[in-house]
Amino acid sequence: MATAPAPSGRAPAPGRDVTSGSVAMAPSGLGSLVAALETHRGRDRAVRALCYACQLAGGALARPQASPSGLPGSLLAVSAQLSACRTVLRLFDDLAMLSYSCDYGLGPKDEDCLVRGLSVLCNLANQLYYPCEHVAWAADAGIVHVGSRKWWTLSTALWASSLLLSILRSLRIMFQLRRKLRQHKWSASSPRSQKAVKAQVKAEVLSILSATADLSNAIHWLPPGFLWAGRFPPWLVGLLGTISSLIGIYQASGGGTSEAV
Fold first, then answer.
1. 41-64 b/e with 16+ CB inside 10 Å = b?
2. What pLDDT does residue 158 have?
3. Taking CA 192 as the corner, what is the angle to CA 187 and CA 193, rounded to the nearest 5 degrees?
4. What keywords would UniProt list here (predicted)?
5. What distance in Å separates the CA atoms of residue 133 and residue 156, rounded to the nearest whole number?
6. What angle do CA 128, 234, 73 make, to 5 degrees?
7. Residue 65 region, left (φ>0) first, then alpha (ψ -120 to 50), else beta?
8. Cβ contact 52:238 at 8 Å
9. How far is CA 185 from each of CA 142, 198, 219, 224, rounded to the nearest angstrom?
10. Are 165 and 122 in contact (CB under 8 A)?
11. Residue 174: which residues within 8 A CB-CB, separation 6 or more?
12. DSSP secondary-structure letter at 257?
């Protein structure tokens, strides 16, 4: 962690971390928030939630059939800037995704074959998504001289494919968990074991809701003519994104997992 400058403008004494000391003295709630914002994933979740919240508010306040101006226009502009910020930060996500994909490989041998297959395809779609988005971003920035539209479309299609595969995987896992619950009902399994399975079911339900909201937006961003592509008003895009973001923050905080039960 970088050392914060002293109030006088001079560097603090060697070995003294002003930021860490401040966090240690802060209330636990504020300390947890600061700790989350100091991580890449935690900051991305916060930026994502704020991005969609601004789009929701700006879209809701904007007048129909009119170009947004004033407060609605400002909120939508903030949303666009935050979205661009996240796009730039994702330039560094390829290696993390590659590491995860390599670690997972073809999946554990004791895992359900269908779940493994869906997971591998989902990882592949995610891995291909990043370079496509990077090319689209570079084209818009004038770094490479290619048309960006087809690359944005391809990256969005890969994202949508990943979300659909994720939903199918969660549905398969839920089917297995519900079968396990029925077995527990007729066996002498401990209440703690049943509680853990129910927590897993809850986590998968939340994952499905989050992925469905994102998939709805992903389809909206595809070229017009495909399902409801291009038909969502800004407030609806913001609402779906906010729901997905809040679910993600809730899950990251320990909610909806077996550890939280």
1. ebebbbbbbebbbbbbbbbebbee
2. 97
3. 50
4. Membrane, Peroxisome
5. 8
6. 115
7. left
8. yes
9. 61, 12, 40, 49
10. yes
11. 201, 204, 205, 208
12. S
Could you report the per-residue pLDDT of 160-170, keeping only the tens digit for each? Answer: 999 999 999 99
Return the structure tokens found at 124: 């592949």
Give residue-wise pLDDT tens across range 186-230: 565 667 777 888 889 999 999 999 999 999 999 999 999 999 999
59 against 192, higher pLDDT: 59
Other beta carbons within 10 angstroms of residue 220's beta carbon come to 20
Written as six digits, the tokens of 97 are: 């995704």
* Residue 213, both tokens: 């909201």
Place of tokens 């003519």: 225
| Residue in the block written with tokens 């001079």 | 10
CA–CA gap between residue 77 and residue 103 (Å, rounded): 39
DSSP 92-137: G-HHHHHHHHHHHTT--TTS-HHHHHHHHHHHHHHHHHHHHHHHHH
What distance in Å separates the CA atoms of residue 159 and residue 219, rounded to the nearest whole number?
Answer: 10
pTM for the predicted model, two decimal places: 0.81
